[in-house]
Amino acid sequence: MDLKKIYEKIGFPRLIIASFLIVLLITAAILNIPLSGIWQDIFTRFGMNAILVLAMVPSIQSGIGINFNLPLGVIFGLIGALVSIELGLSGLSSFLVALAVAVPLAIVAGYLYGLMLNKVKGQEMTVGNYVGFSVVSFMCIFWLVAPFRSPELTWAMGGTGLRVTLSMESSMGGLLDNFLAFRIGATKIPTGLLLTFAILATIVWIFSKSKKGTAMRVAGSSEAFATSNGVNVDKQRLLGIVLSTVLAAIGIIVYSQSFGFLQLYNAPLYVALPAAASILIGGASLKKAKILHVIIGTFLFQGLLVVALPVINIISEGSMAEIIRIIISNGIILYALTRKAGDAA
Question: Domain spans of the chain?
Answer without folding.
Answer: 35-269
